[in-house]
Every structure is written in structure tokens, then in C-alpha cells.
Amino acid sequence: MHKQVQNEDEEDNLAFTPTYASRFLNEPIAKYVLSDKSQSPETVYQIIKDELQLDGNAHMNLATFVTTWMEPQASRLMAETFEKNLIDKDEYPETADIERRCVNILADLWHSDHEGQALGTSTVGSSEGCMLAGMAFKWRWQTKQTRKGIKPNLVLGSNAQICWEKFCRYWQVEPRFVPLEKGQYHLQPERAVALCDEGTIGVVGILGSTIDGSYEPIEELARTLDNLQAKRGLDIPIHVDAASGGFVAPFLQPHLVWDFRLLRVKSINSSGHKYGLVYPGVGWVLWRHPDDLPKELIFRVNYLGGDMPTFALNFSRPGNGVIAQYYNFLRLGRQGYRRILQNCQDTALFLSRKIEDMEYFELLSRGDDLPVFAFTLKKPKTFFSLYDLSDRMRERGWQVPAYSLPKDLQSTVVMRIVVKENFSRDIAAQFIQDLKEQVAWLVDHPYKHPSVPRPSFHH
User: Fold this and answer.
1) What Rg, from alpha-carbon coordinates, does the chain have?
2) The whole model's pTM is what?
3) Which burial class, exposed, middle or buried, applies to 115 when counting CB atoms under 10 A from its CB (0-12, 13-18, 19+)?
């Protein structure tokens, strides 16, 4: 009994022992099996916090499109609603209504004639939205088929996000990629339409390519498909993958016609956790008309307390991302979004001008569509690669991706910079200073065999 009391006293004292003086931190922890003993919450918190410091600094991550800063009030709302399961609409009717409000706000932003009854849903991100839109395309195509033996295909640019390749593989649809050309880093309408036939379930237009931040010409694509229908009778719909541009174009390029103003656009997705300015992960997908979302894809469940429709791939998921999106809609309004995104674009244009002025680089884009731009090395080759420069910048904490372009242009390596809300002009000036210093170092330390690619972690 004395030994048992002594052990209990030792466990109780652990909760009052300063974390770094506790014995637990002087021993290896069980990382891949469950430990036999429990530990104090403060100790476990400190262990995990210390390990996470080995991650990159999210505020210096110029690779990701995902939001890395929100106002404290929004963060507090998210923390207070982690436990709300969005699918439990009967238990959390206000959260469900907030989701419906967000869908209608986006429908209004994208010029849908919805009258408060827009058809759409939140998702965990744009990838899920793309999957749902692709499924709707395929189902509608199947119901209209009268000839047997025709296999479905989807036409898209080779710059499309990887989620579209996943969709085609998972749902057995042939992807038909429009290849890129030098100076043309996104889909060209005439070349896309040339790939269309009776098996084409739809064409994907991208409002904001992840390669260089440029918009694909959606209005021209719709016009070209109209001509195709007039000549051959093929009525092929468009889905707009506006993962980033859906929250940018309405504010920075309000006169650009890309959305439901075009009758051929049947569905649109966007990421709330990108330029919707919400932490990951929340996305949205909307349809023009109920006929564009086959009713066979909508399921109804009643075991959560009410009869509710659901047409998302995911079932249980937290509702706090939707609540944070609604916070931004109320907090910012059109004026706030326009101001923030204009600041982002001004900073992107400032950076691209500074980089263009450096003798070693050539711009692929400037940041005048999305606040995103890409650049490559000028020819003839310099004595360093962009992979090397990316490694050097990482030593200063900057995360700037270097990558090769898709098929047909894979010999071209580029770097891309994504400007987000928390990337101030002052920090941008510091980035340029660091970039110049790292370039100077690489120039002063040339490799003996510049024609041979240097091994790199990024390769």
C-alpha cells in the first residue's frame, strides 16, 4: 500500500513539475506505438510544440495558396465551433443556415439568377468541389447517351490541378489534355474544342492557373463551344475551376466575364481557404440550375434527427470553416475584400518588377490576374539552377518552390511566388534583398560543370 501511495504521489507531482525539468523529457518518447502510461497535458503540449518548430514558418511560405493568417476574432470563432459536425443539420440548424447563406452570397458574387435559392454546398476544399462537378458532368452525359460503346472524356489544359487527374482515374473518364506552348501557359480554346467529340462530358476552364497565376479565357472558350454546337450539334458544358480566382476576379476584375453570366458555365468551384481568406479547409461548389446536378447524386438521411439531403463526398466534418467564411463575408464585405486583394496584387506587381530588373530572370507572368507570378532563368544558362536558389532561400526561412512545367515544356524550370494578405510590402522588400544576396552567393560559387544538373533535394 505504501508503494502504491508513493507511485500515485509521483504521478500527481508530475502535473506541478516544470516541463523541462520533468523526467519524461529526458527519455525517448513512444512515437509509433501507444505508450503504457499517461502524461501530463502540459508536458505533451510542450513536446508536440517543440517538434512543430521544425516546420517552416507559415508566414514565409510563398509556395502555398492557402491562407496563413486570420483575425483573432475569426480564430476564436473557429476554436469555439470545432465540435460542430456540419452534417448534423438538425442538431446545428444555425450552422446549416450559415452554410446556406454563404452559398447564396457566392451565387450573387458569381452572377447566378438564384433568388435566394442557390444550389451548392461547402466542401473540404476545391478538390472535393471538382470531384462533385465532374460526377455531375458524367451523370448528365450518361443520361443523354443513345449510342453504345462511347467512352466518356474530359477536356482540360495540361496545367490543370492534379485533382482533375484523380477524378478521371477514379471515375474512369479519359482525360484529354491540351498541351502548353512557350508563352502560352494555359488552355487555348480552339485547341480544346478540337479535342471534343460525342464522348466529351465537359471542358474545364481554370480561373487562376497554379503554374503562373493567369486566367484562362473562359468567355472565349464558351463562344468557341457555341460555334461547335452550331456546326456539329455537340452541347458541351463548362466547369470553371476557380479555386483561387473565384474570390479574386469579382473584386479586382469585376468586368471580366467568366461566371454564370455565360450560359454554358454549369458549375463553379472555389476555395474559401485560399483567397476566401479562411484557414484550411473549406471550399465551395455551385451549380447554375437544379437540372445541372442530377437528383440521383443527392442522398437523403434521417438518422441524425431530420430528413436532410447530402451530396458531398465527405460526411462528417467540422463546421468551423463555414463559420469562418461567414465571418469574413460579414466583416469584410465587398469593400474589405477589394482592399485586401488589391494590396496583395500591388505587392505582387512590386515583386515581379524588382525580379524582372535583375539580370538573371525572365517573367512568365506579372501578378496582374491572381496576385501570383512565376519566373525562370534567362538563356544562356547561368551557373546555378532555380532548384539551387530555392535551397539557398530556404536557409533564410523563405519557402519558394522551383518546379518544371508540365508535359511539352518540362525542360523549363520556374519559381512561383504567391502573395497573401500577411505578406506586407516591408517583408516583400526584405525578400528581394535576400534574393539578391543568395543570387550573388551562387554567382560567386559557380560549379565546375554547369552543364551537368546538380543533385538537389527538390529533384
Assistant:
1) 25
2) 0.89
3) exposed
